[in-house]
């Protein structure tokens, strides 16, 4: 029987029970022990010890005193069964229940009390031992499972490369790349299935992994004359679409480029560091080589690397930006100051819904610094667009000229593009990555510092242009035109303001087109150390231009003044008579101004001569600035046609314009913002020199144009002496 069923009993008046529990070896001490039990009963009850103390000293057998064993009153099986049955119903009996139970079982109420206490303690201990045992078994099982999984992880191999895949040995970038690689591999499998189906229908075999470059002719760029009279920096033979053997390579290259762009656009240090003079983030080439061990291949000898990243908020939704990037006419128009020409050669993949998700197309482009002194960069690449999630898009470019024979481009685009994330109120967060290799040694002149530091085509140049152009679009689409009114300004209706903004937009578009799309002879003449590019265009049946031969002359020069200072001076109407030959020394007045950007200097203005002048000419001026470039563009317009357009509801597209103006760049020596360093100016004039559809260019017309541009350059230089630097 367990100990819980044996309750220590003090002297309860039952001398027979006490005598039976005494030691039989001490016959003479029975009476004494019983009396001792009576004397110390209360003490023994508290301690649970029923021994009688030290009354055995006078024993007749002279033996040493012995401690007596504890006395227990063992309950009968019937008593235990009754109490256990009662315990199951009520483990905590009150005093009345204990008295009733004691009377029923012939026990003392105190015995009942202690039995229930012991029973509760016993049950509690048994439950705790059971729970501890279960937890111990579960813990051992989890330890064993954990050890098994650890061993499995350390022994696992990458199915792609066969290398170890221990998570503890991988960087975050590597882990992210492996996840992306698995997803892109699945896409390739799906596309391969589609390609096989097409192959069965057309009879043209498709190889998944061709190992040799196809004998494909080089692309046909169909660009006009390049800068400095050259014909570009590559062969211009005709080509057809990419053949069936090349397309799988191009697709796999585009998928890998997208994977790399996603990492490049999101990972910070140590992959990216502070850029030159605090401009866009610059790429850590050593870290790049560690992170991306494959891709476009090793860097080309003699090529210079330009890599940067910039992030900004843009006033356009992601789908609008994607559409602008995927259509070459919109792309070249949006980035007219950077992209001279663009062409889509072939669309390899297209989204059936028409939203550009998954579109893959082969393109070529000519990138330019607006100057006749800088050679253009030409690139042949594939552009891939993919939606990465809800409100998140990515567009990536990567050169594919190395897949084609007989082509020698000097600009190679590694994975470059942008990550576009939807924000609130129609805005987008754009992270732009620009990563190119270029061989442009010996083509710098005064632009050497700007180009060699990577600022000419840096990511902040692209982002700054995008932000500025989106501001312009928003202002045209808005009905709340922000005009600057004063006492001498004319009053314009909303139609008049809209017409004026459209004319200013045409001036900018035509100015850039005149710098890049002119065809015909290109002549260079040395004028005080500057080269002047003179080109001709013939205008026929263009309602926005006069018919005849139009000459476009351009040159670049340096000024020892910050870009902001030069921009603010040239845009002011009150300063124009100091440098504009067409003003004939007369003061110009601003009679209307409409802002088309956050910066109030981004605006369209209408200028005219003083009230005493008999001139019928007015000037529409477009001024635009961002941290990387500024423009002061203008065109003389007929006063009568402008009055009809602004007040009579005329079509602004029929106002005849020939734009001229200035492109202002930092010289690369100052900090961003245009408040330090010098300025690089490109001045361009467009003039009608011979009217009529059959007119031809004459030598005197060229001489007149050169003299005009030379005089303007000299006047501006005189206004900014060297001591202002």
What does the main sheet amount to? Answer: 10 strands, antiparallel
Number of DSSP helical runs: 17
Query: By helix and strand content, what is the structural category?
Result: alpha+beta
The CATH top-level class label of the largest domain: Alpha Beta
Mean pLDDT: 78
Q: What count of domains describes the coordinates?
A: 3
**What is the C-alpha radius of gyration, as a whole number of Å?**
47 Å
Helical residue percent? 25-40%
Strand content: 15-25%
Shape: elongated
Question: Which second-level CATH architecture of the largest domain applies?
Answer: 2-Layer Sandwich
User: According to CATH, what is the topology of the largest domain?
Assistant: Alpha-D-Glucose-1,6-Bisphosphate, Chain A, domain 4
Low-confidence stretches: 1-62, 206-239
In CATH, what is the homologous superfamily of the largest domain?
START domain
Q: In whole angstroms, how far apart are the ends? A: 109 Å
Overall strand count:
22
């Amino acid at each position: 029987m367990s100990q819980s069923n044996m309750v220590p009993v003090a002297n309860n008046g039952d001398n027979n029970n006490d005598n039976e529990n005494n030691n039989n070896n001490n016959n003479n001490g029975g009476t004494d022990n019983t009396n001792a039990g009576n004397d110390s009963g209360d003490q023994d009850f508290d301690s649970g010890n029923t021994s009688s103390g030290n009354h055995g000293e006078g024993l007749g057998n002279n033996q040493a005193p012995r401690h007596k064993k504890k006395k227990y009153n063992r309950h009968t099986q019937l008593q235990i069964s009754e109490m256990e049955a009662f315990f199951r119903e009520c483990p905590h009996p009150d005093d009345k229940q204990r008295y009733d139970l004691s009377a029923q079982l012939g026990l003392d109420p105190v015995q009942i009390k202690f039995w229930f206490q012991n029973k509760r303690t016993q049950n509690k201990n048994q439950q705790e031992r059971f729970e501890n045992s279960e937890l111990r078994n579960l813990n051992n099982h989890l330890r064993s499972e954990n050890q098994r999984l650890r061993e499995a992880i350390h022994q696992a191999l990458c199915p792609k490369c066969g290398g170890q895949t221990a998570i503890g040995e991988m960087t975050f970038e590597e882990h992210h790349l492996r996840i992306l690689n698995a997803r892109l591999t699945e896409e390739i499998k799906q596309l391969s299935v589609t390609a096989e189906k097409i192959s069965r229908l057309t009879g043209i075999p498709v190889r998944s992994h061709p190992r040799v470059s196809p004998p494909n002719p080089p692309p046909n760029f169909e660009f006009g004359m390049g800068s400095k009279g050259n014909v570009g920096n590559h062969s211009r033979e005709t080509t057809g679409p990419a053949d069936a053997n090349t397309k799988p390579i191009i697709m796999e290259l585009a998928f890998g480029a997208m994977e790399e762009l996603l990492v490049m656009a999101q990972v910070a240090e140590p992959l990216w560091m502070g850029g030159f003079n605090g401009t866009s983030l610059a790429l850590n080439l050593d870290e790049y080589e560690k992170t991306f061990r494959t891709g476009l291949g090793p860097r080309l000898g003699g090529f210079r690397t330009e890599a940067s990243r910039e992030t900004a908020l843009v006033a356009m939704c992601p789908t609008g930006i994607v559409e602008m990037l995927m259509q070459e006419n919109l792309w070249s128009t949006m980035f007219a100051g950077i992209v001279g020409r663009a062409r889509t050669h072939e669309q390899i993949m297209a989204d059936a819904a028409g939203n550009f998700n998954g579109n893959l197309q082969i393109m070529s482009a000519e990138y330019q610094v607006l100057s006749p002194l800088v050679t253009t960069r030409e690139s042949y690449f594939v552009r891939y667009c993919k939606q990465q999630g809800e409100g998140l898009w990515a567009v990536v470019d990567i050169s594919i000229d190395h897949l084609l024979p007989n082509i020698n481009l000097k600009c190679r685009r590694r994975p470059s593009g942008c990550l576009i994330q939807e924000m609130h109120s129609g805005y987008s967060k754009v992270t732009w990555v620009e990563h190119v290799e270029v061989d442009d040694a010996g083509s710098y002149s005064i632009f050497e510092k700007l180009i060699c530091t990577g600022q000419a085509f840096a990511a902040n140049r692209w982002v700054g242009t995008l932000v500025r152009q989106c501001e312009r679009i928003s202002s045209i689409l808005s009905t709340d035109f922000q005009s600057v009114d004063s006492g001498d300004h004319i009053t314009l209706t909303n139609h008049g303001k809209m017409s004026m903004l459209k004319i200013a937009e045409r001036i900018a578009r035509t100015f850039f087109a005149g710098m890049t799309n002119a065809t015909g002879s290109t002549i260079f003449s040395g004028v005080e150390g500057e080269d002047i590019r003179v080109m001709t265009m013939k205008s026929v049946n263009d309602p926005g231009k006069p018919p005849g031969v139009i000459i476009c002359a351009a040159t670049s020069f340096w000024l020892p003044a910050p870009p902001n200072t030069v921009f603010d001076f040239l845009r002011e109407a009150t300063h124009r008579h100091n440098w504009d030959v067409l003003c004939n020394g007369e003061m110009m007045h601003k009679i209307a101004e409409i802002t088309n950007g956050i910066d109030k200097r981004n605006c369209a203005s209408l200028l005219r001569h003083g009230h005493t002048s008999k001139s019928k000419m007015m000037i529409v001026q477009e001024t635009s600035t961002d941290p990387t470039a500024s423009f002061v563009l203008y065109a003389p317009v007929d006063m009568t046609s402008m009055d009809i357009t602004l007040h009579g509801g005329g079509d602004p597209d029929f106002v005849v314009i020939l734009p001229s103006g200035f492109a202002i760049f930092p010289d690369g020596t100052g900090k961003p913002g245009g408040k330090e360093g010098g300025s690089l100016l490109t001045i361009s004039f467009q003039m009608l020199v011979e009217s009529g559809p059959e007119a031809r260019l004459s030598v005197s017309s060229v001489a007149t144009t050169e003299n005009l541009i030379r005089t303007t350059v000299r006047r501006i230089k005189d206004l900014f002496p060297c001591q202002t630097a």
